[in-house]
């Protein structure tokens, strides 16, 4: 069952994959796929050729648009190999694709290397899309928060390593 006007589909049952409507905006590019069974992220590819100089960033099109069901979001993560070998990351990692967004998924890549430019070729795997169930919260104003073991301690306070 599929509501064609919104692309929303019922949530899958246990052990069944989530079906997501995908529009291929560039039919010559491979569609997002999971490299291995059980992987969390599906590879997104570059629709463009470009060079990122040291410290430069660019908004890179992926050639795909999706219609996520309500209650889900897509999160665009850097690819660990690009980060480790070339210093290429996603600036706003993870980038968020909301269920209501229907435009092309874009990735803001950043070259963190100080010396070397990085060449992105059309079809290169540039990021990963992780789809997750999400909840919307109702924020309730209170005078005080319940006590917790951690309390108000922040960055770096949970250990030395």
The name of the CATH architecture is: Distorted Sandwich
**Overall pLDDT:** 90
Strand content: 25-35%
Total domain units: 1
Strand arrangement within the widest β-sheet reads: 1-4-8-6
Q: Point out poorly predicted stretches.
A: 4-9
The name of the CATH topology is Deoxyuridine 5'-Triphosphate Nucleotidohydrolase, Chain A
Termini separation: 50 Å
Summary, kept brief:
Keywords: Hydrolase, Magnesium, Metal-binding, Nucleotide metabolism. By secondary structure, this protein is mostly beta strands. It has one helix at 80-86, and strands at 21-24, 42-45, 50-52, 57-67, 72-78, 88-90, 95-97, 104-111, 118-120, 125-133.
Describe it.
4% of the residues lie in helices and 34% in strands. It has 161 residues and is mainly beta. The chain has a single domain, classed as Deoxyuridine triphosphatase (dUTPase) (Deoxyuridine 5'-Triphosphate Nucleotidohydrolase, Chain A, Distorted Sandwich). The longest helix has 7 residues, at 80-86. The radius of gyration is 19 Å and the shape is globular.
